[in-house]
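anyone seen this seq b4? input:
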Amino acid sequence: MSHPNFPIRNFCIIAHIDHGKSTLADRMLEITGTIQKRDIREQTLDTMDIEKERGITIKLTPVRMHWKGIELNLIDTPGHVDFQYEVSRSLASVEGAILVVDATQGIEAQTLSNVYLALENELSIIPVLNKIDLPSADVERVSEEVMNLLGCRREEIICVSAKTGENVETVLDAVIERLPEPKQLTVDSEFVVHGDPRADHSTVKALVFDSQYDTYKGVVVYLKLFSGRIQKGDMVEFIHTGAKVEALEVGCFSPKWNPIGMIEEGEIGYIVTGLKTIADARVGDTVFRGSADHKNPIKGFKRITPFIFAGVYPVDTDEYPKLKDSIDKLMLNDSSLVTEHEVSPALGHGFRCGFLGLLHLDIVKERLWREFEMDVIMTSPQVTYRVIVLGDKVAENPRNSPELLEFNGKTHTAILVSNPEDLPLPGNFVFIEEPIAKIEIITPTEYVGNLMQLSQERRGVFKNQYFLDAARAVLVYEIPLAELVGDFYDDLKSLSSGYGSLSYEFIRYQQDDLAKLDVIVAGEIIEAFSMIVHRNRARTLGGRICFKLKEAIPKAQFSIAIQAALGSTVIAREDISALRKDVTAKLYGGDISRKRKLLEKQKEGKKKMKQFGRVSIPSETFVNILKK
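predicted toks r here
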């Protein structure tokens, strides 16, 4: 049971995309007087231009409010599956969650996955039905769905209209009454409830759940304080990186940075560190001050591994240093982005970047342009494959993450490969495994047949089907992640008239008939176009690339063969005919043998050119073929 006299509640708002999280947060800011009504605008907590334009939340945003004498720390979270990492970090920093469900749409895919995340973190959940002011709202049906999902009683569900502000005060009251107090830490980093005699108040321990780079202040870390207090001027240490810093400024979010000089146990706030590099202040680290005996990290949130990789290169090769600086600053604010340096023979110096999904990739590209004025080329996205290599010797390459395993009584090495150029030569590996994702599709029942057919065409394996109510079904499939990268989501939306929703998570690696597809132009393998594909799809993909290249490569003085091959087997081919010069133009009559002689001479020359001539593929051709 909560103690309303304890002055702090920490909570976040979770929901499927576009169910009204940010609008509800706006009304809370208005009702609590945190922001003046004249300063309230739509999506107040969405500070990036790109968030406002797309109408989606990309970054988690904390804000402190006061209601009936209680301090409320709210974290607004994204709803899209690609930003699940932002949600998981928010959940580790709070004790409760408001689950917002659209009364017109009902439960959707991300509603389910966010609820599972909240339950894993042992959070108290307050169910809220939003958009009850709309004529199409079906409060009865959606309440039934929420009760089935959470196992709650009907009277626990609060019906609101975030747009008009109707009943939002009831939600604020419920936060005070139903949500527990902030968790506290013992000496051994065990979480205990407020008032437990084992709580350690002398040691400072805080979890870093986000960070941002500011041109003037340096690195600003966002943290949840589990024990002790941090004041301006205090020296603190990051346990994992070992960096020692002075808290140059200590404050809370109102929602802008508000320096207040001190944050206390149970509160959410920020400290300005003055650090200039992101490596010293990692998200998930523990900020510490106290006796060395108690120097153990807080059990935070698990690191999410990206499974989709793409090359990022500057359009102008001279701008590589600017791109490096831009990506470094972006990574501080987007801790799920993973990068490493890479050199392409076609595109020069750039980065191999790991993303959580295609929307994440698209947002990173857009932010590089908007925030750093970097125009970049993104190569087509690839997933990470696991390759089982013969024996226990493998070339040292940090991106491969080698791992020894027993297979058929022998020791082999498993390496991770996201770039086809890193794939060992045939004969040097046993087999390739691809990442498999579990997907949940929520759809109106009339589209079930369409979506089952789509999933099976993409090599999906049917696992389960159940009904949320008489009108909506949930389809559960296991599907190769490579099939999701591309137009799967677009096709799903088309086949369900926009009503279908999708959530997915990586579950395992699985062996399949996979091979490296090479593209050969005039007898030379062009590594930039290589990709790892399933053999059943190789002919279609190879034919498509060959056709695109035929359209893009200019004619030469000799004929050019464009081939797609699996190993030594050519599976698709296109030919670009030679640019023919009219060598007989200068003749104005005479014997036919003179004409034939000139044509034979030209033929010999073309044969010789074909032997020694090289095809120069224009850089814009690489851009057109490689970009998404």
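DSSP finds 14 helices and 35 strands in the chain. The longest strand covers residues 429-444. kinda curious what u guys think
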